[in-house]
Amino acid sequence: MLSIARLLRIRLFVFAFAASLGATAAVAQGSGQTEVRSTQAQAQQMLDRAVAELKANGPRAYERFNDPKGDFVINDLYVYVVGVDDLVFRAHGTMPKLIGRSAATLRDATGKRFIADQADEVRTVGKGTLEYIWRNPVNGRDELKRALYQRVGDVFAAVGIYVAQ
Length: 165
Hints:
Helix content is 32%, strand content 30%. The protein has 165 residues and is an alpha+beta fold. Strands 3, 4, 5, 6, 7 and 8 form a 6-stranded antiparallel β-sheet that branches. It has a two-stranded antiparallel sheet with strand order 1-2. A hairpin with a 2-residue loop joins strand 3 and strand 4 (77-83). The radius of gyration is 17 Å and the shape is globular. The model is unreliable at 1-32 (pLDDT under 50). Residues 1-25 form the signal peptide.
């Protein structure tokens, strides 16, 4: 059995390790488990990198976005790319089964047509943010997600954070 002092040292190490990854660590209430949650600034940085990658390499960038061990899938952050007009997924960092499929009728747990709503906004403004409910790939739970997205030609790239509730 571990002593309280040893448990506290282990917990301190976990928090320090999570902080060194550049993510915030949140302890689920009462569970003692640590979850890594990325920040909005980290999501914006990844989106900026994804936009630059798309501008430099066009559709060849999709392969990098789809690589689960690559630098566009980190903890709970990942990139997805959708056609502005056809709403077809071109890339998705954690759900490759969506690639090539239409998101026109895709809805979150509350019925929100979140991909169509994102496409509507990028057609008029070029970028935006939207909150919806989506499965967190780290813990497998449906959670509030805030997506940041930006148009690049005939597609838009998006990255989101899972908002602690």
